[in-house]
Amino acid sequence: MASTSEDEALVQVDLTTWSLDQLFGMKHTVEQECAVLKESQQALQDCKEKFVASKEALDAIQPNWENREVLVPLTSSLYVNGRIKDPNNVLLNIGAGYYIEKNLDESKEYLEKRIVYVQEQIEKVKKVRLHKDMFIDAIVGVLEMKKKAASNQS
Fold first, then answer.
1. Are 100 and 92 in contact (CB under 8 A)?
2. pLDDT for 77-110, tens place per residue?
3. Which of 53, 114, 131, 144 has its CA 20 to 30 A from that of 47?
4. Is the pLDDT of residue 76 over 80?
5. Of 13-17, 55-59, 118-122, which range is least confident?
6. Are 1 and 12 contacting, i.e. CB atoms less than 8 angstroms apart?
7. How much is the mean pLDDT over the chain?
8. Cα dist from 56 to 5, 53, 111, 112, whole Å
9. How big is the CA angle at 119 (ends 114 and 124), to the nearest 5 degrees?
10. Euclidean distance between CA atoms 46 and 31, whole angstroms
């Protein structure tokens, strides 16, 4: 018997009643799902790292930085000189090409909330991956059992 979790509902599946083709098919399907989950987890991790880097940059800003010269990135490899007009206010990219202006403390709070939220999503994906990995292990166990039983019969 193997269990899988989907939206917190527990489903019992008796894998021993499945044919080899069904087991191989399910194993392949779940492995594909795991690959997608791994990619999603990495994308979330990358997102979290950007939020952390942004928060660290905000933590470095000093109140006396008014008119301080900085390099402003236009692309990942192209910068122009700029000056900080108001070190207490920043524009935050909130996605889909939208920006909001917030003071330094509100910006740090916003980023901290995003970091916590993304970490929660990472943990959820990890949990689902763990359940799917356990399901794959159960399928492999039944496949090995069936192969052994078939070789004992011949």
1. yes
2. 999 999 999 999 999 998 898 999 999 999 999 9
3. 131
4. yes
5. 13-17
6. yes
7. 92
8. 37, 5, 10, 10
9. 125
10. 23
- Convert the pLDDT of each residue in 9-51 to its tens digit: 667 889 999 999 999 999 999 999 999 999 999 999 999 999 9
Three-state secondary structure along the chain? CEEEEECCEEEEECHHHCCHHHHHHHHHHHHHHHHHHHHHHHHHHHHHHHHHHHHHHHHHCCHHHCCCEEEEEEECCEEEEEECCCCCEEEEEEECCEEEEEEHHHHHHHHHHHHHHHHHHHHHHHHHHHHHHHHHHHHHHHHHHHHHHHHHHC
Q: Tell whether pTM > 0.85.
A: no
Beta bridge pairs of residue 101: 91
Angle, to 10 degrees, between the axis of helix 20-60 and the axis of helix 104-153? Answer: 160
